[in-house]
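Cross-check.
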Amino acid sequence: MSNKDLEAYRSQGRGVRAGKYLRYYCPIHGSDKQRSLQLNPDNGHFRCYACGAWGYLDEFKDEWIKKQKDKKNWGFPFRTRKIFTSINTIPKKVKKETIKSEYTKALKDFQEFLPGSWGEEYLRRRKIPLKVAYNFGVGYSPSGKWLHKGRDWKFGRLVFPHTDLSGEIINLYGRAVGSDKKVPKGIRHDHLPGAKGVFNSSALEEDSVFICEGVFDALSMISAGHKNTCAIFGINGLCWEWVKSNRMVFCLDNDSAGSKTMNQLCWEGSIRGKDIYFLPEKTYRGYKDLNELWVAEGEINIGDWD
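Predicted model, tokenized:
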């Protein structure tokens, strides 16, 4: 919630002065008679004495996050009591689309194509054991078999299931294989049309979950022994409604985009009362992501967190 959002609610403007604070109608629970929300304009902290919601305005997020970080404990920024969500962090409702049974059937066929394929060779390059890939539903679509018309690739695609929280397959992701130099960037990644899910979504029901951007990072963590790891298919793929875990450990790419997204995810997780952690830069040993680390070093040393 930004200051602009707050002032726009019921056109209340800059609020009513109450000592060093400002009082507003609360847009979180929709008050229209009592100015129950109190704002400290100096640090952006707000609290509603009617619905109990509290937090910081968007303009003050980065400053608040910076103050809360504890470099001695994994850069662990948040250990807060349960707080209520603000306007811009209410989880979006996931549209329940008809589960396409052909995706389940197709993936079963794709798994039979995996042994001896370009897909198996690519997994080998990424140091992902074939057995691990099988156990987590990975398959291979040969050239001419991919379900997304116009997105086929001459060396085929490794195929990964998108699942919802119940474990139903709701989409498929295909990664074009062969040498990266032979794969045009625009065709390298492909998701079938429709709703998106999570790779290994069942991890979101564990008490503690490791969350990666991509499937190869997740499979690297799983191969390293951390089976409660999922991939959200990109930095914007997390559905907060599905997160049942109490502790969330973000394992995003070791770059500026990952760092920027980290702050936002930590903020949103904290206002849902989650215990939020993230892998510190030193864990990556200079590599850009966990799979690159896994390929080069053969281990991912994060300590005892399972």
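The two ends are 34 Å apart (CA to CA). Residues 70-99 have pLDDT under 50 and may be disordered. Passed to J.P. for a second look.
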